[in-house]
Amino acid sequence: MITSSEFELSGKLALVTGGGSGLGLSIAQKFVTYGARVVIAGRREDVLQAAVAKLGVNAAYKVCDLSQLSGIGALVESVEKDFGEIDILVNNAGINLKKNVLEVSDEEFAEVVRTNQLAVFSLTREVAKKMTVRKKGNIIMISSMASQYGIPKVIAYTAAKSAVEGMTRALAVELSPLGLRINCIAPGFIETDMSAKALNNDPERKNRVLSRTPMQYLGKPDDIGLAAVFLASDAAKYITGVVLPVDGGNSIGF
Hints:
Helix content is 45%, strand content 15%.
């Protein structure tokens, strides 16, 4: 555990949705490294169990399908009853749909928006109800390069993530006077098993990604985890309402 730093999260409890794998797990790992206790939430119990075994004694999990909005309030109550007050919420869970825009049905569009936007709002609202009473709290959204510029075949995902960035700013204006900070991370192209497989099988797309990334390489999951630690810590105590691209310059590349 790292201590004696403005980045220290000792004594904090973080709830990380989608924390069993990918970027969510990397965020949870960095939170634990910097002293926080972490509760990860997701749909697949076996994945959550494996993640907690990796994260260690300062981690626990809750099984929850966030697309079932009616159960979100109960999730928050259960976390606070079992583990204490939630200091940090990371809205990381999400789904995607890669499909030609002319073939996307209303039902498919709504399903992506339900998980990536409505569930994010609902969970944020329920956690914020607790945090505003205590006059302190930290909420971190996870956006995407899809909200920074146009990417084909992900229209529903783009719409939802763009809404998340708008909500970040609106929530910060409304809730920061009550003691909360709300910020957002917009990951660029990060080297995960899934992305590596996709890009390695599509050299043209990989070259396109790297050609518009000034730093000329893919990010690592830890880059997102460390950004989340920063935004959750006292090192960022005067920062609210920002969307932070962690992308090697991809969002401003030419």
